[in-house]
Amino acid sequence: MQIDPKRAIPRDEQEKTSKIFVGGVSQEATETDFREYFMQFGRVLDATLMMDKDTGRPRGFGFVTFDSEGAVENALNHPNLEIMGKAVGLFLLMTLLIFCKVLDSNTLI
Fold first, then answer.
1. How many other C-beta atoms are found inside a 10 Å radius of the C-beta of residue 44?
2. pLDDT of residue 109
3. 13-105: what fold?
């Protein structure tokens, strides 16, 4: 089993950071492609492209943590987001978590 360590963000810095969910990422993209694409919007603290543990290929989504809300706004306001020629969608992580919680609480059994 391989462990992929990530930089821990101290609690006092967490409020200063902004994390987004990125969906629709090409399976041809590498984590380097992913990180470098988002660097145009501001300083990237972390960029994680989620990988399939069996195939080692990207699962089509990932997360980016910027050092400022301004960088997030820059990314969210960009009209045509494409990585390796494929359009991607962005969501603020907090918005996505709230949406998922609402869906979960409205699920009928």
1. 18
2. 45
3. Alpha-Beta Plaits (3.30.70)
